[in-house]
Amino acid sequence: MESREHLGYSYEQILQVVKFLKLVVPNFKPLVGVICGSGLGPLADSLSDKIEVPYEDIPLFPASTVVGHGGKLVFGTVGGVPVICMKGRFHAYEGYPLWKVVMPVRVMRLMGVEYLIVTNAAGGIPSSMNVGDIMIIKDHVNMMGMGGQNPLRGPNIEEFGPRFPAMNKTYDRALVKAGLKIAESLGMEDMTHEGVYGCVGGPNYETIAELLMLQSCGVDSVGMSTAHEVIAAGHCGMKVFGFSLITNKAILDYDSSEVPNHEEVIAAAKAKEAKLQGFTEAMIKHMGSLKNAGPPSMCSCGGRR
Ligand SMILES: O=P(O)(O)O[C@H]1O[C@H](CO)[C@@H](O)[C@H]1O
Ligand SMILES: Nc1nc2[nH]cnc2c(=O)[nH]1
C-alpha cells in the first residue's frame, strides 16, 4: 500500500512527543495553552516557575525560522494556573505543511490543555483600527482553507475529533465577552475591538486589490497564521480565545507612500509588550476561575481523548 506519511503525523507520533515532554515536566498538567505571535514572545516571560524547552530538543518538532519568533516551549504558571506557551509558531510560508504547523496544538491537547489563547500580529483594515490596538477575534475567514489547504487534510485521526468538524462555535463567545470586559477593566477599552481575522498564505503582504477584497468579505485584521491552529484546536475540542495586535494599518490608497514591513510589525509589538502581558495574564486567570467553577463543557466537535 502507498505510504501516507506525507499526509501527517500519526496519533502514535504525537503521543511520542507528549511522552517526551512529560518526562521533562513530570506531573505538570497545563490548563491553558498560549501561542505567541510575531514579536509577542514576551507574553511567555510573565510565567512563574518557568521551564523552557527549545524546539530543537523536542522529537519531531519543526524549527522556528521567522524573526520575532523564538523557538521554545515554556511551561509555568500564572496566578497558580498551569500554562504552556509556544514562544514561536510555525507558518505555511516557511515551507511547512499545515499538519506540521498544528502539531504543537495537538501535543498541547494531549498534555491536558483545555483553553487555547492564539495571538498574532496583523494588519488592520477598518480605518477605526490604529497601530497598537488589539482586536479580539470573533471569527475568521480562512482564505487558505477555502482553497483546500487545511491542517485536517489527510487521514482523520478519530482520537482527536470527527472527519467533518463544525467551526461556527470555535471562537468561544463567552471568552470573547470576557475578553472585552477584561480589556475594559484594564482601561484598554479605547484600543480594543472585536472583529474577523483573515488568514492568507504570505509571505508577501497584500496588494491593495486583495485588501479591498478581504474588506468586502468582512475581514478586519489580516495575517498569515492562526486559522490553522484554531481549526486543529476546534477539531480536538479546545475552547479558543484569540486576539490580533494591529501592527500596521492596511494600505488601501494607491497614492500612499507607505509600505508594510516586518520591522514595523516587531516594533509595534514591542511597544505594547506590558499591556498585552497584563491582558493575557488576566485572561489566563479568568480561564483558571472557569475551571475551578466546574469542568468546561467541551464543544461537540471533538475532544474524545
Ligand atoms: O501571525 P504572526 O505569526 O503573529 O505573524 C504575522 O507577522 C508576519 C509578517 O510580518 C507574518 O508571519 C504574519 O502572520
Ligand atoms: N498578511 C499580513 N500579515 C501581517 N502581519 C502583520 N501585518 C500584516 C499584514 O498587513 N498582512
Describe the structure.
- The chain has 305 residues and is α/β, with parallel strands linked by helices.
- Helix 1 crosses helix 3.
- The protein contains nine helices and nine strands.
- Helix 6 (208-216) links the parallel strand 7 (192-199) and strand 8.
- Strands 5-8-7-6-9 form a five-stranded mixed beta barrel, surrounded by four helices.
- It has helices spanning 11-24, 98-101, 103-111, 143-146, 173-185, 208-216, 227-235, 262-271, 273-292; strands at residues 32-35, 48-54, 72-78, 81-87, 115-124, 134-142, 192-199, 221-223, 239-249.
- The chain binds 1-O-phosphono-alpha-D-ribofuranose and guanine (GUN).
Helix and strand topology:
Blueprint (H helix, E strand, L loop, with lengths): L10 H14 L7 E4 L12 E7 L17 E7 L2 E7 L10 H4 L1 H9 L3 E10 L9 E9 H4 L26 H13 L6 E8 L8 H9 L4 E3 L3 H9 L3 E11 L12 H10 L1 H20 L13
Parallel strand pairs: 1-4, 1-5, 5-9, 6-7, 7-8
Antiparallel strand pairs: 2-3, 3-4, 5-8, 6-9
Bound molecules: 1-O-phosphono-alpha-D-ribofuranose and guanine (GUN).
1-O-phosphono-alpha-D-ribofuranose (R1P) binds next to strand 5 and helix 8.
